[in-house]
């Protein structure tokens, strides 16, 4: 049984109520098409990651420039920010092209698979999956850090708080993207409102000459490095963290309303405009108030303090909004990771379970995988943003590069078409486009830029953690291909090609009963074996001489038919002697099927079940590894109602007999 | 299958080698009698807990007396220590009586069960089991604290170190008590040697007038309480922690060589003598050097420093020995907890698995239970001795009280015998004893003393953690009885009393095949069903309309016989619709047995297995809960050798056919 549906047992009773309360009532498969979101909610769902990066991108540039040991070079932040904004515009235009070219979802994975082949697709996918996990870990850790700087008493709860927030975001996402969008749009729009209010008031005060400068911040000089081109590039690459998350919309096109591409493209442009405006605005204002990278206070806090005054309501609201958006940024990964993992799984590069939709039609396995991986990372790194940041963003820029390279290949193919010609492609059709050359130059330029940024990332951050990602991504790709070959092999093994039709032959079946002691359950096994009408015998593994003698005596008395074979087991093993016996049977009876029948005491509750050895489950696992072996479990139901046992045998007659006994005894 | 042997699959290949390296080669059951230890090793195994308490007992008395806020009353430590020593002598004499009365193990549990009934036995056992877990947690935590005070750099590794040491002790104990005794006797004797050397040198210098006084220690005054009788009693009860562990030998008599009782009694007397000597010696010397309870330095350290000089080799060796004995004290619990748990389990008050002897003939389940419970406690309490100490020792004194009360009851019975009379008892015979009245007075006096100490413990430590133990012990007793009633109920349900002999009837069997898709595994199921020769039909759960159509078409083509029933499942559930179908079948066919056959793809490795849905395992669990239902699993072996798949069908002929296909394809 290897199917494409959820095989988990449905929750019952109180578990069902709890599940409904937390996750919501199950949804029917046919409601799938309705699980789409409006542009406004789409912006909140897919943009929080990208928008939240404005909270630290300017600061990252200033931190690197401050390595020169002087505030003189901090002014370079503005030209660097302008260059990053230009890169962002190029990537936006490039990804807008992708959204129209791939209306069913145009993430780096699909574009690479369509144009560059399986290997490139797996590389892009592995890079993105890694970065989605890191996004959750980084943004929740830094959001918690913001909360802790406001409430230092919470310091010892850093890791539990981060894990609890991951749990909360996970539950909301298990309810489905529509609800999670509605929940998460409030903080996203709150952050946007507060940030634009700050920028508008700041610019107004700057224009009217009433904007002061920051006071009371110490300049954190750690080393005095010369200002080199390398340092400027490093500052540029650090600031490029602002671009992370921009690919989210192209991956999630199918979550938008029809016309999907147009709605997704609109949302992308709105998001990039907001991002560029905020990023440049913050960088510009921070220079004019002479903000300084410092260990004590973030740039955002310095800016808000100067614009509104320390401790003012608006100051607190902006800080709260910034903390919130960082926590919400994790939600973007919750929208994208499961979709991308399902794509990999659908192509057979990740466990197939990732394609199953849970009760609420979301990819529950993907959500849980993301939650567990991010929690492990947060626990392992003690929720330290400093430790996580060097691992971050390499994957995103690798996927940018692969995706745009794929678009270049696609546009070259389109360039070879005649006017009006349409060629059927793997994912979407290739249509003639008179502007193909311009589009191709944009994609190629974007690919080169993002590749350079990725290389700078990898080189400048190598020793502080990037090496791990540079090892992890090839390892993941290797594992993905191993999984792929596994599924291909299994599919080939199961294939019925060249199999004769309607020619299933029968063979001799040797039935053996595994007998531990002789009790009501044993009689049921014998009853089943007799009812099946095939020849059978019984086997007992002798661990304890006294017990073996009792078993033999009881067998003779209560069963009185069929052979009882005793196997000795001096090392108290159960499985090994049975395995050997079955192997001998198979060798002495070539072609025959060995049918092993074992009893199982089935209890009402897991707690009761745990009080019994449950060796049938273990033996079952150990014996199904043998060829030409079939295992049957004959359960005996043990019901307990407040210390009272009703046991029902296979027939109602026995049940009545049993009840009769009890009423006589009581 | 519910047997008294280990049902875990035997390790294979590299796992087997690793297991042999860590745990040792498996031992045959008949070698069980040889797993006993000499008195010297028995002392090391069972006494390290009791002896290690000298490392803190004196200090505990001084800490309480220091609450008066003046050093003037610290001199009371000596009379209090003498009173505790007297109590220890009484308990030793009382337990020596018990060892001779119960040569097969005379722990509080057995004595209580034999004389006071099941409830008292379960109370004593629950108290002791709780205290054994606490002994491991407390002694390893305080040992780690000793190491950390010597090497403060290790502070952040406190919890991992404690857990790692628990792991190490667990592995040594899984090898068996003989080896663990040999390993642990070295540090025990090293501690004894160093402590007696310190005491002898100290007394010599005191006698020759060359022993100085402690300098440089601050008196830690936290509050100034008046010296009341209550405070003196509290100091007495705190110092009575020296008695914890004294019961270990009486529980573990069976680990001694024959004559067991004599050897165990000798070892008990030696242990108590060492304990009293060290405890009084330390208390006496600590008063003469004017040692003061302090946050900076332990009493043992102050004594060693004064006797040998700070930083001297002997000073360091005594501190190292003290740290080691504290770590080793945990080992005593590893010898006793599994034995006691097995006693409970043997009487059906704890899961029966605790009676299974593992490959090395030790009670592996008990050892693992202790290790996990102690690790959880250490992790939860952050390895803080201060947090754990208030939970400690109540259980031990409760068990002392119960055990000695039991002996009083026993001796009263003996008192009623005529000279020379022998009455057969439950555990051991009752023999006439002319000195029964003296013995009874000793036991009764011991019981009263330990009861008073326990009450003082409970009252003075109630708010700082003792409440938890006072809640936990009744809860455990309740759970133990629940388990007991469960086993009794099941035994009654399985009982064949009043069952007719040799009269097993047969019934109609309805065979249904669960079909997911149609592939080689499906054909095997059909083959098995046909070979069994009973009527059968197939059932498919339709989650996806396309897939259902494909399945129906393939069924018609490749099977072409038997009915294929399609059940619709709009919520993508698998188990629920099948359950309902089976329930309907059972209702429409009263008395019939429903035989469900399902396929299972059996992979070579767990990793490969995890890539498949394994719904047969889940369905199996979900369906064995129904009455009159039997489940058969037909595995299809999938072997992968470096990306290559060999698949063997139930018959060699199919195998050859499959190989033929491959050779044509390649």
Structural class of chain A: alpha/beta
Radius of gyration of chain A: 33 Å
**Can you give the helix content of chain A as a percent range?**
55-70%
Note poorly predicted spans of chain A.
1-11, 642-666
Distance between the termini of chain A: 47 Å
Which chain pair has the greatest contact? A-B, 124 and 124 residues
Q: What integer is the average pLDDT of chain A? A: 82
What proportion of the residues of chain A form beta strands (DSSP E)? 5-15%
**Main beta sheet of chain A, described?**
6 strands, mixed
Quaternary: homodimer
State the shape of chain A. elongated
Lateral arrangement of strands in the main beta sheet of chain A: 5-4-3-6-7-8
Specify the number of helices of chain A. 24
What is the strand tally of chain A?
Answer: 8
Structural overview:
Two copies of one chain form a homodimer. The first copy, chain A, is α/β, with parallel strands linked by helices. Chain A has helices spanning 13-23, 39-52, 57-65, 77-101, 108-115, 118-150, 158-174, 177-207, 229-239, 248-251, 260-288, 299-308, 313-346, 364-380, 385-388, 394-415, 436-460, 462-494, 520-532, 545-559, 575-588, 606-610, 615-623, 652-665, and strands spanning 422-423, 430-431, 509-514, 536-542, 564-568, 593-603, 629-641, 644-647. The first copy, chain A, has a six-stranded mixed β-sheet with strand order 5-4-3-6-7-8, with helices on both faces. In chain A, β4, α20 (545-559) and β5 form a beta-alpha-beta unit. Chain A is elongated and about 105 Å long. The model of chain A is unreliable at 1-11 and 642-666 (pLDDT under 50). At the A-B interface, α18, α19, α20, β6 and α23 of A face α18, α19, α20, β6 and α23 of B.
């Amino acid at each position: 049984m290897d199917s494409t549906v959820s095989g988990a047992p449905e929750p019952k009773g109180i578990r069902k109520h709890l599940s409904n309360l937390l996750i919501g009532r199950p949804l029917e498969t046919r409601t799938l098409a309705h699980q789409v979101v409006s542009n406004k909610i789409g912006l909140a769902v897919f943009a929080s990651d990208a928008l939240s990066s404005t909270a630290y991108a300017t600061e990252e540039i200033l931190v690197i420039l401050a390595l020169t040991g002087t505030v003189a070079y901090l002014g370079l932040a503005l030209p660097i920010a302008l260059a990053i904004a230009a890169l962002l515009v190029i990537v936006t235009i490039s990804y807008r092209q992708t959204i129209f070219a791939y209306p069913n979802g145009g993430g780096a994975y699909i574009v690479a698979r369509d144009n560059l082949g399986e290997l490139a697709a797996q590389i892009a996918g592995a890079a993105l999956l890694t970065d989605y996990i890191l996004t959750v870990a980084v943004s929740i850790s830094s959001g918690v850090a913001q909360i802790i700087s406001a409430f230092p008493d919470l310091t010892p709860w850093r890791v539990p708080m981060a894990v609890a927030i991951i749990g909360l975001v996970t539950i909301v996402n298990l309810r489905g993207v529509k609800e999670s969008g509605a929940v998460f749009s409030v903080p996203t729009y709150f952050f946007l409102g507060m940030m634009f209010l700050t920028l508008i008031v700041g610019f107004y005060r700057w224009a009217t000459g009433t904007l002061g400068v920051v006071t009371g911040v110490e300049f954190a000089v750690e080393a005095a490095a010369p200002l080199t081109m390398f340092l400027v590039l490093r500052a540029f690459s650090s600031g490029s963290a602002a671009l992370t998350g921009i690919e989210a919309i192209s991956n999630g096109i199918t979550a938008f309303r029809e016309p999907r591409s147009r709605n997704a493209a609109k949302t992308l442009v709105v998001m990039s405009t907001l991002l560029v405006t905020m990023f440049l605005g913050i960088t510009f204002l921070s220079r004019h108030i002479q903000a300084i990278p410092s260990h004590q206070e973030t740039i955002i806090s310095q800016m808000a303090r100067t614009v509104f005054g320390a401790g003012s309501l608006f100051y607190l609201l902006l800080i709260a909004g910034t903390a919130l958006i960082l926590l919400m940024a994790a939600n973007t990964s919750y929208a994208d990771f499961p979709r991308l993992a399902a794509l990999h799984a659908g192509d057979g590069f990740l466990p197939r379970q990732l394609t199953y939709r849970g009760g609420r039609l979301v990819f529950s396995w993907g959500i849980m995988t993301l939650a567990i991986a991010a929690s492990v990372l947060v626990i392992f790194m003690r929720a330290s943003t400093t430790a996580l940041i060097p691992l971050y963003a390499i994957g995103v820029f690798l996927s940018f590069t692969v995706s745009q390279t794929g678009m270049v290949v696609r546009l070259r193919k389109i360039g070879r078409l005649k006017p009006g010609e349409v060629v059927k492609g793997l994912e979407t059709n290739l249509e003639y486009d008179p502007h193909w050359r311009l589009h191709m130059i944009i994609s190629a330029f974007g690919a080169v830029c993002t590749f350079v940024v990725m290389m700078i990332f990898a080189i400048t951050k190598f020793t502080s953690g990037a090496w791990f990602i540079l090892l992890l991504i090839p390892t993941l790709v290797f594992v993905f291909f191993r999984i792929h070959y596994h599924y291909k092999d299994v599919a080939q093994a199961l294939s019925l090609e060249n199999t004769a039709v309607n020619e299933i032959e029968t063979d001799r079946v040797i039935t053996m009963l595994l007998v531990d002691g002789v009790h009501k359950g044993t009689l049921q096994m014998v009853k089943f074996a007799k009812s099946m009408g095939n020849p059978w015998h019984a086997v007992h593994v002798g661990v304890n001489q006294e017990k073996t003698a009792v078993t033999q005596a009881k067998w003779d008395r209560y069963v009185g038919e069929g052979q009882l074979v005793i196997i000795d087991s001096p090392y108290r093993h159960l499985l090994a002697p049975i395995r050997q016996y079955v192997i001998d049977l198979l060798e002495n009876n070539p072609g025959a099927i060995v049918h092993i029948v074992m009893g199982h005491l089935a209890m009402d509750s897991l707690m009761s079940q745990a009080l019994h050895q449950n060796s049938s489950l273990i033996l079952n696992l150990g014996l199904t590894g043998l060829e030409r072996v079939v295992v049957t479990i004959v359960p005996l139901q043990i019901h307990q109602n407040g210390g009272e046992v009703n046991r029902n045998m296979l027939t109602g007659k026995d049940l009545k007999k049993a009840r009769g006994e009890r009423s006589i005894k009581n």
